[in-house]
Design goal:
single chain, alpha/beta, Creatine Amidinohydrolase, Chain A, domain 1, Rossmann fold, 6-stranded mixed sheet, 5-stranded mixed sheet, about 10% strand, globular
Length: about 775
């Protein structure tokens, strides 16, 4: 029976193989304009890789990489590029094309250092190919990819695109594709201030670019006469951007409509990414028209069109989830929610109608809790009850909850501020044209922090002005000292403790730091703030994970080891080093990690390093329930991660709290072994005398600040979640013994005195 099944399987594979080899391969179908057919064939081949020759599999992977790139699925694009490269012979042209495509992938993710690195490798690999006869199509694709990728690096060169176009003269589809990339290449140079259009070179470049787009459209129409194609949509999309740069708003909006029309064929959207992208571009245009005219009709129109595109964006995002990608960047602003939040903010400002506050709050919660069901009923639901819960919490704890969300186009630092008796929404930026600082996750460079100089103080003053000064004024009037920050992904690494209320040189950083006014704690969403408002946990046991490093890769933490000895004397402890690492995933435990952390705002994953070959990834927590557990992560930059714009932040703090952790203490910059041990010893001392965890952290910061320790020593730590208590070891009550001894001595002395007096009387 089993042998018959094998024979049947092999026979079926042969039939499929014969059928597929009797028709054009996926790439050929794609370039002939038959994308749907190409996708079916490629999926069939890739589903049974062992049933087909390497050449057929390579062609399928090549097409799937190309298809996913054009569909905006960049991570999947990378996956199939890797799969393709694993099959070929690694000739110089294979390697050059592989590196060029990887450079293009990193360009899509705006990771410029990686773009430059792979551009360099591609150019070096292609140098071995210059004098070898090769198929024009392969060379054309290399030049097209390297030209597109090199746009923002020192390798930028229009000749790459010229070569790409010339080498595929007889290939209509590829020529149209290369022309579109050429126009995209030029569009970077056309995004200029209005005053620079007076220069002839810019006008000439604009005319050349529109001529290139006309050629691309004509070629695409030869393949798709009805002008319904993803290729047409991509051409019209870049065309609308170029025309907008020239200031021709009406013509740009007409091209927006042409883009949408091209991307819908027989009721189906051909490219979810491009449709979402052009819709958010249209929303940007309407917002700009609103800012100029102050006509609310533009806002109402935007709300409707953005809500209409939410399901389309949802289908794009669902496809991303199918491939279980660790994270993806919404850098091309496909996500309609930023624009929608800007609309709700402006409507709230103009009408004072709290329904828009409620909608904004609902949408922020939708995003921060990473809901995957794109239900418009959820987005339109009145969240006044949830807002009431936050206000009640503020009243109970005499605190404020500040829920941040940063939008970039337009630039708004949105804050929904809840107080004991009200909630309101404001834009924190000091002026309408103020641009928030980019790359906030990378501002705390250790060299700058260590110096504690005027520039670092000034930087924190600028950030105070951008993110907290307006809120500070309100809280000071209300005399509120406790603030819960629900951070946005963009503000992930921002430590509000050290934001400066004064920029003057002669006032010390500590004196003008916000932590002298407020006690800050952090949360990942409003829902987590309400849900975690429960009875304080009293831990009686401390689990310590403190690896001893013996390699040159990770320096030994001598002072960390001494800290462990101190903790062993203060508390009931368990050393987790020699136990299976899965024990860290348990519920209802307190875990102290003292070790190296591999973390970066550019990385998809962060790691707690156990040794040279073993680490605990933040993604290992994703399917765990760590309810009731608290984590103290004392390692370099354990609190930062990649800012993934729809997924929010993928750092340990966010991942753990999403898995129901009770609290997390982490750091937002590199910390020194000796300084960290000294800080933690003081923190645990305050815990031992009965302070709650957040109070102990705050007290430790104040102690070192008042004793003139540099900010680099105590300013890295931030507190997420609820308070807990930790019981010290039960030791004999020394004070009671002292009292008893003193009392006994006093009795003895009295007896002796009485005896002497009695003796004296008898004499």
């Amino acid at each position: 029976m089993f042998r018959n099944l094998i024979k049947f399987y092999l026979f079926a594979c042969c039939l499929i193989s014969v059928k597929l080899t009797s028709q054009p391969l996926p790439l050929n179908l794609y370039w002939a304009g038959k994308t749907d057919s190409a996708l079916i064939v490629a999926n069939t081949i890739s589903a049974k890789p062992k049933a087909f020759a390497a050449s057929y599999l390579a062609n399928a992977y090549d097409f799937l990489a190309e298809y996913n790139l054009e569909q905006g699925h960049f991570e999947n694009n990378k996956k199939f590029i890797r799969a393709l490269f694993s099959l070929n012979n690694h000739t110089s042209i294979d390697s050059a094309l592989f590196f060029a495509r990887f450079a293009n992938y990193y360009h899509c993710n705006m990771m410029w250092d990686s773009v430059a690195y792979f551009c360099s490798k591609a150019i070096k690999a292609y140098a071995h190919n210059l004098y070898k006869p090769q198929e024009n199509t392969v060379n054309a694709r290399y030049y097209s990819y390297i030209g597109n990728a090199a746009r923002c690096t020192k390798y930028r060169n229009a000749n790459y695109l010229d070569s790409a176009v010339l080498l595929c003269d007889n290939h209509t589809f590829l020529k149209a594709l290369h022309y579109r990339r050429y126009a995209t290449f030029n569009s970077d140079l056309l995004n200029i201030p209005e005053k620079e259009w007076k220069f002839k070179k810019n006008v000439v470049l604009y005319k050349n670019t529109t001529a290139i787009l006309n050629r691309a459209e004509a070629l695409a129409t030869k393949i798709y006469p009805n002008k319904k194609s993803s290729l047409h949509g991509a051409i019209y999309k870049i065309w609308s951007l170029v025309v907008m740069d020239r200031g021709q708003v009406d013509e740009s909006l007409q091209l927006v409509n042409k883009t949408k029309e091209a991307l819908i064929d027989k009721g189906a959207v051909l490219n979810y990414a491009d449709y979402s992208g052009i819709s958010t571009f249209e929303a940007t245009t309407n917002m700009n028209l609103y800012y100029k005219s102050q006509q609310l009709d533009y806002l109402y129109k935007n709300e409707k069109s953005l809500l209409d595109v939410v399901p389309i964006w949802g289908k794009f995002y669902k496809k991303e989830n199918e491939y279980q990608i660790n994270g993806f960047d919404d850098e091309y602003n496909l996500n309609p929610f930023q624009k929608l939040l800007a609309v709700y903010f402006e409507l709230y400002q103009n009408t004072k109608n709290k329904i828009y506050l409620s909608k904004a709050f609902s949408l922020i919660e939708f995003i921060k809790n990473k809901r995957t069901a794109f239900d418009l009923a959820v987005l339109n639901k009145d969240y006044s009850k949830a807002l009431d819960s936050i206000e009640k919490l503020c009243k109970l704890k005499r605190c404020s909850v500040v829920n941040y969300f940063v939008t970039h186009s337009p630039a708004i630092v949105l804050a929904i501020v809840s107080l004991p008796d009200t909630t309101f929404m404001l834009n924190c930026l000091p002026t309408p044209n103020y641009n928030p600082r980019d790359n906030i996750n990378n501002i705390y460079e250790i060299g700058v922090i260590k110096n504690d100089d005027y520039n670092f103080k000034k930087l924190n003053y600028i950030m105070y002005r951008a993110y907290f000064s307006k809120i500070d004024t309100i809280l000071q009037k209300r005399k509120i000292k406790k603030v819960v920050i629900i951070s946005d992904g963009f503000l992930n690494a921002l430590n509000f403790d050290i934001l400066q209320t004064d920029s003057a040189k002669f006032i010390s950083m500590t004196h003008s730091a916000l932590f002298s006014k407020y006690k800050f704690s952090y949360a990942i969403s409003a829902r987590s703030v309400v849900n975690n408002n429960q009875d304080l946990i009293q831990y009686t046991h401390l689990n310590i994970l403190a690896p001893v490093y013996n390699s040159t890769s990770y320096p030994r933490l001598i002072f960390g080891e001494k800290l462990v000895n101190t903790l062993n004397t203060l508390y009931a402890t368990t050393n987790l080093n020699n136990i299976s690492k899965t024990i860290i995933f348990k519920e209802n435990q307190l875990v102290q990690f003292i070790g190296h952390v591999k973390s970066s705002y550019l990385q998809n994953e962060q790691f707690l390093i156990l040794n040279d070959s073993t680490a605990i990834s933040n993604y290992e927590f994703r399917n765990q329930n760590v309810s009731g557990s608290s984590y103290l992560l004392n390692g370099c930059q354990s609190g930062i991660g990649r800012n993934v714009k729809f997924d929010r932040v993928n750092n340990f703090s966010n991942v753990l709290l999403k898995q129901k952790a009770y609290s997390v203490i982490s750091s937002v910059w590199p910390i020194d072994d000796k300084e960290n041990a000294e800080f933690q010893e003081k923190f645990y001392f305050f815990l031992a005398v009965g302070l709650s965890s957040s109070d102990a952290l705050q007290k430790a910061k104040h102690y070192f600040a008042q004793h003139n320790y540099p900010v680099s020593m105590w300013g890295a730590y931030i507190y997420y979640g609820n308070d807990f208590y930790l019981s010290p070891k039960k030791t004999p009550n020394t004070l009671l013994y002292l009292v008893l001894i003193s009392f006994s001595i006093s009795i003895l002395i009295l007896v002796l005195i009485k005896a002497k007096l009695k003796k004296a009387k008898s004499l």
